[in-house]
């Protein structure tokens, strides 16, 4: 039910709507729940609404932590 | 695509009288179906076609009803789908498809120009598959009693003596080969549904698998256990059917199953599993392990099998489960679809 | 898919799993509840149990809004859908949910009711605009993730002056349910060492909403994304907290979740909805202030008020162990109906209803795993 | 009628999921179609049936779509009609029908009990006609996109070498024989239409003509030129088709054409011509004059031909007109139906 | 069928034919017009021409209400049928009639208009009662036979207080059309020796309605039943009058026709309808007081008033000879479109439209008969 | 269009309706246009309405005249 997926804003449409792209698949969604959405932003899309903006910096940091944790043991490093 | 023919009717619509068995029906058939499907058997002009009996082997007989919505979709239309739906079911038995019948159920008001376009698509698909549409039937139902057009096809093929492919022949140790990416047809159809409103370049894979099958039979011979086309219910349903029919389990490798990025993306957007989505130009083969690589090579050498892959192994399992090692490293069951509601896709 | 594929890397997963295994202390069991059905689904879909050490036990929580919706509310929606002139719209997940006597919205549709699947709340508003002669009722369901979408639909219906649009509000709240589980609502204490907090709910309500877990129940909680690496990382974070004897609220899913959440969404929800005195959850019973309803000022959009829906409580099926399962006290295999009387095709209890339910996920994705001792494995 | 079988589903309805290619569809097939139609070829359980090739002669292939409304009518139902519609088209070529396929297009919400009843009717009709339903397909479409149920059948038969019946073989001097009264089926269907609201005891003549045809072929041998079943469009359409196809005219005797009183009465009430009304268990044969009486005697000896009559003669006519001496003494043309709107009858 | 089969006896027919042949005076031609399409149809269906001597020439009159309905009134009905919310009902005969530009009510139906065939006027009233959300318009057509059925429907609609039922009145009157033909409306005198008067029209209006034929035009008229023996007997009666130089109104169809007709039906028609100033007939042009309309007091049932239908006159097809044929001056075969450009499948003119039309009956039942000299026989 | 056929009244129904029979085929029609219709009467049925009563006496007389006229010539008598 809480299925949501990050997608890139590729165009802003009138009426608080935007076109998002997910690997080339495009879909019009509502961005009424987010202020200041811009083309190039990644947003979390849930039942046709953008719920949250993805913070690229935080994403990078999380991946760094992941890689670090995965490398802690011999198996992970293999 | 075909020889010159009378200009297709434009602007007109199918009326009840076109199904009433009189002159209007005869004219509809003469102006639309006859030129699009022309062949000597159809030209006999009777309510049935008389055909030479093929020499040797066994007859193979199958039918499919095409009820797809929308009728025209990227990569095909209901006519092409109706032909290939039956042709592929024949080919899955290793048969050479020879003859098709077409039964049209048309909703009053259907545009004649669309009917003409679909008839020509049937003709083209039949020629591509090497079959002749030799007999047919046309009914018209009142507006509101159908969804534009339904087409039921039936087909006759012949399989050479000695080639016995059947869903109950998978044995533990056999390899499971998939001829290409899954989900293309279903997602292409979904992309046309207004209420889902997404856009993709993806096209249906709708195709006749006849030449691929010929290459496979030539390459693997009796080592080929069975083939089946994963249409409605997708790969998941087909593998579960086969597991049930053969009394075996299956062990799949998720990473080996080709899925196009657009199909993955749509599935993520809509919460669908690509393994449950319909294909119309793919097949699953089960083959004895020693012939698997030979068969795979033969398939990859053919355009319809260019992305073929060994996706799993048949295993012993009294519970007949289809299991899958996920790309992530875990394991899970690949079950039949329990009840997701997809638009009509075939 | 950016921000997706990176978090599904099987290589990193193996490393992370090894680290978790290495850090899990010998002889100890880590009982971690993933509250959210999205997590339950991801665990099953990626076979995460195979990657985790025996010591880590994942317990499926009540975070599937479809599963926990009480039968009487389905019954009421079906009854409404059957009325002439009514078009009932809802998300696909809800249409198959069985009501009393083996019925469902899909069966009602087959029998002639105008029931339509929509992808978004806004599709329902569009239907109401396109078909003014129909009264369009949106059967709203979902946690805090989904409620803002309902609020946006109501905003649009209000702006368009639609008189033929209404909503049945079944929106529920995460914190009260979590509190009930941690408190042991039926007198039994929850036997949990940590909680994996919801991903998308938290984008809306913010991580601060879970402070009570640590403060009141001394239970650590990590808000985690729905991708499998997110989950593994959250498990590692919880194992580490537990090893250290800590009970803090952490966020693994920092790329989308902030401490305060989506204030705009919160304000919209606040405008349209208010808490109910109590709301019944399948498997958990009635929980105070755990559900939302439309504010009285918006009664014209409230299908419950407009159509005099009075759901008549229906008891949960007696043999169903959902309550114990949703509290982490039993596993699906320990229910004697699991896979026999109760399957996703013919669900009996709440947990078998949606693909995100604990029993359904176990059955559909994981039933090949060894059955508990003394119990036959269902075919 | 058949061996004991699981109690038919009661109260349930067909849902979209029954057509989705998953477990619900498999269960529908297993609980309703499999027991009703049981035979070893169907039991192969594949998407196609593999069949022995008949020895000698030619194959005959035909299809028919059944879209009748109402689905149940006096003397039959859509299942019986779907079987006999195709079986008779095979028989008209002198073929022994062997195998049928069935393609079901079912509207969401269709009562399972009705589906079960129709499946059993198909089974009974197939057994009566000596054919096996060996393969099938099931689709479900949304409520409002069909009219309860459509069934397309296709059939394979075999005709012995030397027997060549075709619509182009009528020659001046040949006799036209009709196997019985006309209009029974169409009027029985009309009697069920609410908006026409008349009542009669009449039953549809829906029947498989196979045994009658066998007797006819035995009696007339190569003197038999052709046969055709006057279904949609009635006797008028069939004779005009044959005249056109053979390039001849026909001279009929109205007094010789059997019409039941109830059929005449309904036609008078509604302003219809019995010669344009559908039949589903009648045939027209054209036979060389010297064999006409022998053939007629053979037909009359069979219950399906008890009321058979020589109704006319093939004549030379470059305009290919079907003319009729009226019972009153004058002469008129029997033309194709120009456009009367009848309810759907087949 | 009692009162039917007795009048279809082929044996009696041969005798009657012989008597007619015997009584027809040598060298003389008896030009008899059957006014009514029912007679035209019976003549064709039974092949009566084969039974009559050369001397008797049957001329098909304009008594097919479908044939003579002007195109503009079909156009108006089609336009109305296409409006949303309108359900247009009519008798089957009318639905195929071509309007302008190759359209028809059936084609409009195929294209989505809600057009329904009814058997009786009362079926249309029943639809209006059953489907209150639709506005049901009955496209009424017919001579005096059929008008009372429309009046009964209006009585029922009034009694039921139906606000969603209306009628387009195309009812026409027999005597004015007959008068126009006998008078030679376009300045040419009709070249008729006698008239076969309508069967069922006369059950309603009575035989006295034709007195003017004898009185004003010195033309004998015999009201005849529709069965073939009725027709032959009427021909004999006319031959005898002509031989004697008489011009009287006789009734052959005495079993159903009285001098005064059906007074109850007349009164009902009188209550609801009044004559129009003039009404256009395809092939004949505008004829004074030859059509009916609803009385102004019943405007609420009058679709022409309610929906502002203003039929825009459409000229008859230029090559069509219907006018001459309906006056007995030409035979169908003498039209150069007959069977080539104009057939029952694709009718051009009025007489080819209905099975009762002169050209259609000739084509469908009688085209095997010799074509006139100098003209190829169409295949 | 003026198609009509004689049928026998076999039952009177409420609301000025009656059941007629034509060679065993029965149909409900309106008798609103005829007063005093009785079971056994034959009426002329047109678009679902009884338009006129058949007079058996007149019918017999017409048939007598027909037979007489048909017998006038040698061919008719044959
Ligand atoms: S298996 Fe079914 S009955 Fe048992 S606990 Fe799960 S949902 Fe309830
Ligand atoms: S044949 Fe056609 S065009 Fe000619 S007169 Fe007759 S109706 Fe008119
Ligand atoms: Mg098939
Ligand atoms: Mg297929
Ligand atoms: Mg298949
Ligand atoms: Mg057919
Ligand atoms: Mg298919
Ligand atoms: Mg056929
Ligand atoms: Mg047939
Ligand atoms: Mg046939
Ligand atoms: Mg199929
Ligand atoms: Mg048929």
From TrEMBL, chains A, F:
It holds the Pfam family HupF_HypC. InterPro entries: Hydrogenase_HupF/HypC (IPR001109). NCBIfam families: hypC_hupF. Belongs to the HupF/HypC family. This is HypC/HybG/HupF family hydrogenase formation chaperone.
UniProtKB/TrEMBL annotation, chains B, D:
InterPro entries: HypE, PurM-like_C_dom, PurM-like_C_sf, PurM-like_N, PurM-like_N_sf. It comes from the Bacteria. Residues 45-159 form the PurM-like N-terminal domain. Residues 171-319 form the PurM-like C-terminal domain. Pfam families: AIRS, AIRS_C. NCBIfam families: hypE. Belongs to the HypE family. This is Hydrogenase expression/formation protein HypE. It comes from Phaeospirillum tilakii.
Automatic annotation (TrEMBL), chains C, E:
It holds the Pfam family HypD. This is Hydrogenase maturation factor. The keyword S-adenosyl-L-methionine does not apply. Gene3D superfamilies: 6.10.20.100, HypD, alpha/beta domain 2. Keywords: Iron, Metal-binding. Belongs to the HypD family. It comes from the Bacteria. PANTHER family: HYDROGENASE MATURATION FACTOR HYPD, HYDROGENASE PROTEIN ASSEMBLY PROTEIN HYPD. InterPro entries: Hyd_form_HypD, HypD_1, HypD_2_sf.
């Amino acid at each position: 039910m809480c299925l949501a997926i990050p997608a890139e804003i590729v165009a802003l449409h009138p009426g608080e709507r935007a076109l998002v792209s997910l690997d080339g698949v495009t879909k019009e969604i509502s961005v009424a729940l987010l202020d200041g959405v811009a083309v190039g932003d990644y947003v979390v899309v849930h039942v046709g609404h953008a719920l949250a903006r993805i913070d690229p910096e935080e994403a990078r940091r999380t991946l760094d932590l992941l890689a670090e944790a995965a490398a802690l043991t011999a198996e992970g490093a293999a | 695509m075909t020889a010159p023919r009378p200009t297709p009717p434009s602007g007109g619509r199918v009326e009840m009288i076109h199904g009433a068995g009189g002159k209007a029906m005869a004219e509809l058939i003469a102006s639309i179906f006859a030129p699009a499907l022309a062949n000597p058997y159809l030209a006999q002009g009777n309510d049935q076609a008389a055909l030479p009996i093929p020499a040797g082997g066994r007859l193979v007989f199958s039918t499919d009803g095409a009820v797809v919505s929308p009728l025209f979709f990227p990569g095909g239309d209901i006519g092409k789908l109706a032909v290939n739906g039956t042709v592929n079911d024949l080919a899955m038995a290793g048969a050479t498809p020879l003859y098709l019948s077409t039964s049209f159920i048309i909703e009053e008001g259907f545009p004649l120009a669309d009917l003409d376009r679909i008839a020509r698509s049937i003709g083209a698909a039949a020629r591509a598959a090497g079959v002749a549409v030799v007999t047919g039937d046309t009914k018209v139902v009142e507006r509101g009693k159908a969804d534009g057009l339904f087409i039921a096809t039936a087909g006759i093929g012949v399989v050479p003596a000695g080639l016995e492919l059947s869903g109950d022949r998978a044995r533990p140790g056999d390899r499971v080969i998939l001829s290409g990416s899954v989900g293309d047809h279903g997602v292409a159809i979904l992309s046309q549904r207004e209420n889902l409103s997404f856009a993709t370049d993806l096209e249906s894979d709708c195709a006749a698998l006849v030449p691929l099958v010929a290459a496979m039979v030539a390459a693997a011979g009796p080592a080929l256990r069975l083939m089946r086309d994963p249409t409605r219910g997708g790969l998941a349903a087909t593998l579960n059917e086969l597991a049930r029919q053969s009394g075996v389990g299956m062990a799949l490798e998720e990473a080996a199953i080709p899925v196009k990025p657009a199909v993955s993306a749509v599935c993520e957007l809509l919460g669908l599993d690509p393994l449950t989505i319909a294909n119309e130009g793919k097949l699953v083969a089960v083959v004895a392990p020693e012939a698997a690589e030979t068969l795979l090579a033969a398939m990859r050498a053919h355009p319809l099998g260019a992305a073929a892959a060994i996706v799993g192994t048949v295993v012993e399992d009294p519970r007949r489960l289809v299991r899958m090692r996920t790309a992530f490293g875990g394991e899970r069951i690949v079950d039949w679809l329990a009840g997701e509601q997809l638009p009509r896709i075939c | 898919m950016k921000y997706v594929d990176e978090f599904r890397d099987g290589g990193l997963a193996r490393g992370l799993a090894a680290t978790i295994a290495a850090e899990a202390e010998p002889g100890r069991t880590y009982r971690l509840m993933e509250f959210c059905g999205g997590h339950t689904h991801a665990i099953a879909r990626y076979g995460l149990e195979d990657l985790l050490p025996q010591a880590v036990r994942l317990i499926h929580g009540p975070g599937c809004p479809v599963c926990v919706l009480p039968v009487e509310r389905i019954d009421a929606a079906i009854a409404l859908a059957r009325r002439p002139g009514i078009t009932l719209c809802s998300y696909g997940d809800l249409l198959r949910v069985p009501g009393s006597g083996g019925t469902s919205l899909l069966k009602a549709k087959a029998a002639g009711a105008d029931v339509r699947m929509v992808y978004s709340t806004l599709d329902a508003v569009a239907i109401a605009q396109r078909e003014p002669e129909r009264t369009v009722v949106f059967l709203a369901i979902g946690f805090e993730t989904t409620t803002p979408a309902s609020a946006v639909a109501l905003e649009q219906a209000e702006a368009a002056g639609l008189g033929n649009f209404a909503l049945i509000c079944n929106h529920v709240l995460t914190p009260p349910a979590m509190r009930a589980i941690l408190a042991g609502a039926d007198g039994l204490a929850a036997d949990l060492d940590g909680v994996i907090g919801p991903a998308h709910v938290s984008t809306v309500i913010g991580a601060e909403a879970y402070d009570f877990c640590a403060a009141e129940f001394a239970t650590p909680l990590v808000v985690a994304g729905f991708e499998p690496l997110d989950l593994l990382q959250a498990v590692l974070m919880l194992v580490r907290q537990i090893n250290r004897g800590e009970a803090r609220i952490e966020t693994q899913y920092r790329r989308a979740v902030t401490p305060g959440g989506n204030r705009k969404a919160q304000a919209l929800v606040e405008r349209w909805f208010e808490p109910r005195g109590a709301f019944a959850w399948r498997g958990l019973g009635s929980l105070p202030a755990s559900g939302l309803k439309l504010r009285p000022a918006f009664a014209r959009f409230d299908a419950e008020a407009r159509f005099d829906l009075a759901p008549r409580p229906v008891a949960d099926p007696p043999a169903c162990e959902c309550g114990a399962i949703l509290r982490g006290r039993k596993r699906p295999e320990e229910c004697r109906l699991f896979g026999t009387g109760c399957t996703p095709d013919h669900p009996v209890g709440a947990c078998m209803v949606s693909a995100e339910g604990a029993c359904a996920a176990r059955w559909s994705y994981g039933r090949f795993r060894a059955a508990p001792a003394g119990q036959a494995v269902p075919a």
